[in-house]
Specification:
It is found in: Cell outer membrane. Belongs to the TonB-dependent receptor family. Keywords: Cell outer membrane, Membrane, Receptor, Signal, TonB box, Transmembrane, Transmembrane beta strand, Transport. This protein is 4% helix and 57% strand. The chain has a 22-stranded antiparallel barrel. It starts with a helix and ends with a strand. The relative contact order is 0.11.
Length: 787
């Protein structure tokens, strides 16, 4: 804590400045019919000063004499930026008119400028408010699976990471308030994301390369969870929720509260979630997914010191989760395997308005995460995964230079990962990276230009990489593999340990524009060149990954096929290159009036794309397990062999969303997306999401709100070698809310229904699609409140 105290002291010292008498900025916010808008937020950009309009649309802000930019936000209206000059003794007065919008226009915290989603050259989706509460699931990926361009690698409802435009794993970064979640979800879909949606205020999804902000691990996109664990005000407010689900008998309770005194703000949140195995539409006599129960809990405490020019704050989070991992069996015996996950996380956030001759503001983020999860087989620990992550990022935003606004970002991240046990398919490794990025933007009339560049140094080291002996089978079934061991096999000549050190220098460049060519429309174009160093698991894996039912071998090793001999593994003598993506993104948006739409098209050419390639071979691995809960015995298990390989690929697709505000209460939305992902040498990438189209009918009355969502997934026939196709299906979901007040509390009783037609559905992006179909019909009843 000594270093942390020094950091806080330094930030407080930097923020110190002489106080001057403040003047007032007063104004009124109206709609374009002249009516007042209540509940609008008015903020002085680059400061912590905000005000909310009253029932008459009036607001008041205090500011020192000078020129300022006000940012005005109101639900169902287009945001507005207004320049204002504050004079000594007179202050400033103004009237601002906002245009109505059928689209949700929301400021995005995942970008350094906090611009809205229609001001970005890259497409951004934000899930918040009632929509977030109605769509939250056990996993992050499942919670986002209805969003345009986003799917989930559904893993039996206990694991599920987001897939953005066909990319997942080490290409999609999950962050908490802008910093890496620090878990092990990127090395396997059976590893849960260590975040909780029930205590999150909003989830932001940046679709496309965002390496400038977050580094090479975000070459496919970012999912940023935003909460107030580090509070920015002393306003007293809170939110709570209690819910029960009929399908898996899940009970969920969560709550958060903010408050404070003087310049000290505090925050606390907690949750508890407990569920049984989930039920599926009966097929072949099976009506539930075994080993899919889960129990989790956690809490967060945070505090901030509020300054006239910003804040400095610290939070502590702990998370405990125990969940089953479906799909484990040895022979005809189903084995109960549990994952016991624990995480502690410290996070420091600071935003300071320096506002001197050169520097406008300094934003600092720091996180230390200690993550561990153990896989238990019949109560005995088989494998333990540990990940210790330290991350720090400082953004220095400069004063406008020739009307350019922007700044420098210095970013450091260190991840120390170990896996110990009989199913530790990845050796202990450490990944260190440091990067410098420059981001700038400027308006040229109706055109906003956004430019950026980033250079990064990534070092991957592993002290004891093991090249073990394994037995390979060709074209044999699991049953055949145990017949008297009369099959041909070969092993690597020797079993040996060695050290690995790879150093990469990823470079990313980006150029984008947003052209407001009409009062209600804009056109966005983004061009990017992004590079990514392969992850430690893509390079170093060599062992059984029981969670995905496969034997994984990293790109550091190569499969040797001598003529007339059985294949075996040796070291890969080829240069292990960086993944390089060249992406074009084009968006057309209509954002004013009762009809709004967003159309996106993208083309992504990726050289040296690392993916797990099916070989048609199987590997035999020794496995010890407890038999009949008494004796330990060793047996051979046979798993299909997948090898990480790098090939050139092309991904392209189209996304569309249109919203029609039919009346003040009723709206209709239609959306869809399609993606093609193919190897340049021919063939398709595995587990590519199918095309889909959805429609949503929403009603928002004074007391009642309701929503009907119909999502049609098409059959996926664009499959990789040795991959089966997946039938299409239709999911019908609905929810109804009754809103009322009790004193100072706003309450809502709600009913959620999912898969109302009880459709049997397999998720093509899942490694276990044949074993873990989606849940059958379910109903959840709950009550939530806020104050």
């Amino acid at each position: 804590m000594n270093n942390l105290s020094k950091i806080i002291s330094l930030l407080l010292a930097v923020s110190a400045s002489a106080e001057l008498n403040a003047e007032q900025i007063q104004g009124i916010i109206k709609n374009n019919q002249g009516g007042s808008i209540s509940g609008a937020t008015v903020k002085i950009m680059g400061t912590n000063h905000t005000s909310t309009t009253n029932e008459s649309g009036l607001f008041t802000l205090e500011a020192k004499p000078g020129r300022y930019e006000l940012h005005i936000v109101a639900d169902n209206f287009v945001h507005s930026n207004v320049d204002v000059s504050v004079s000594k003794n007179t202050g400033a007065e103004l009237t601002v008119s906002l245009d109505k919008s059928a689209l949700e226009i929301i400021d995005v915290h995942a970008t350094p400028f906090h611009s809205s989603n229609i001001e970005s050259a890259l497409p951004i989706t934000v899930l918040h408010g009632e929509n977030l509460r109605m769509r939250q699931e056990n996993t992050l990926g499942d919670s986002l699976s209805k969003e345009v361009g986003v799917h989930s690698n559904f893993h039996g409802g206990v694991g599920g990471t987001p897939i953005i435009r066909g990319l997942d794993g080490p290409r999609v970064l999950v962050t908490q308030n802008g910093l890496d979640a620090g878990d092990a979800s990127r090395i396997g879909p059976d590893h849960a994301v260590s975040t909780e949606t029930s205590t999150t205020e909003r989830i932001e999804v940046l679709r496309g390369p965002t390496t400038l902000f977050y580094g090479s691990g975000a070459i496919g996109g970012v999912v940023n969870l935003v909460d107030e664990r580090v509070p920015r005000s002393t306003d007293t407010k809170g939110e709570w929720l209690v819910e029960h689900n009929s399908n898996n008998e899940q009970t969920l309770a969560s709550g958060s509260v903010n408050g404070g005194v003087g310049k000290i703000a505090v925050h606390a949140d907690a949750f508890y979630r407990d569920s049984e195995n989930y039920q599926i539409p009966e097929k072949n006599g099976i009506d539930e997914v075994e080993n899919s129960a889960a129990e989790s809990s956690g809490f967060t405490l945070g505090t901030s010191y509020l300054l006239d020019n910003g804040f400095v704050g610290l939070s502590y989070q702990t998370l405990d989760q125990e969940y089953g991992i479906p799909g484990h069996s040895h022979g005809d015996e189903t084995i109960e395997v549990l994952s016991d996950l624990k995480q502690e996380r410290w996070q420091l956030l600071s935003e300071l308005d320096i506002n001197n001759q050169y520097i406008k503001s300094v934003n600092t983020k720091f996180a230390y995460t200690d993550y561990q999860h153990s896989e238990l087989e019949v109560g005995v620990v088989g494998t333990t995964f540990n990940n210790e992550t330290i991350e720090a990022r400082t953004e220095i935003l400069h004063q406008n230079i020739w009307n350019w606004r922007g700044g420098l970002s210095l970013h450091y991240k260190s991840s120390d990962f170990t896996a110990v046990g009989e199913e530790a398919f990845t050796p202990p490794s450490k990944t260190d990276s440091i990067a410098l990025a420059l981001m700038e933007e400027r308006h040229f009339g109706e055109v906003l230009i956004q430019l950026g560049a980033r250079i990064e140094r990534t070092e991957i080291t592993a002290a004891t990489v093991r090249l073990p002996e394994i037995e390979l089978l060709s074209e044999l079934s699991a049953e055949d593999s145990h017949d008297e061991h009369d099959h041909d096999h070969a092993t690597d000549a020797i079993t040996r340990n060695f050290e690995v050190e790879h150093i990469y220098t990823p470079v990313s460049l980006s150029a984008g524009l947003v052209w407001d060519f009409s009062d209600s429309y804009n056109l966005a174009l983004s061009l990017s060149h992004s590079q990514r160093a392969p992850s430690a698991s893509e390079l170093l894996s060599f062992g059984p990954h029981i969670g995905t039912g496969s034997y994984e071998v990293g790109a550091l090793f190569s499969l040797q096929n001598p003529e007339g001999e059985t294949p075996y593994f040796g070291l890969n003598n080829q240069d292990l290159k960086m993944e390089t993506a060249n992406n074009i993104d084009l968006s057309l948006r209509k954002f004013k009036g009762d009809l709004g739409f967003i159309l996106n098209a993208f083309y992504n050419q990726i050289d040296d794309y690392y993916y797990e390639q099916a070989t048609g071979l199987s590997a035999i691995s020794e496995h010890e397990h407890e038999h009949d809960h008494a004796e330990e015995e060793e047996e051979e298990i046979t798993l299909p062999l997948f090898v990480f390989t790098a090939q050139d690929v092309t991904l392209y697709g189209f996304e569309a969303q249109a919203v029609w505000q039919v009346t003040d209460e009723f709206s209709w939305k239609i959306q869809g997306d399609i993606i093609r992902a193919s190897l340049d040498t021919g063939g398709d990438l595995p587990r590519t999401p199918p095309a889909r189209i959805a429609t949503e009918f929403s009603y928002q009355g004074e007391k009642i709100s309701a929503d009907l969502f119909i999502n049609n997934y098409f059959k996926q026939t664009h499959t990789a070698a040795l991959e089966s196709s997946t039938d299409g299906y239709v999911m019908v979901d609905a929810n109804v809310n009754y809103h009322f007040s009790l004193g100072q509390h706003d309450l809502a009783v709600y009913l959620k229904g999912k898969n109302l037609t009880d459709e049997y559905a397999q998720v093509h992006t899942s490694f276990l699609k044949d074993l873990t179909p989606l849940a059958g019909r379910s109903f959840a009843i709950g009550i939530r409140g806020s104050f």
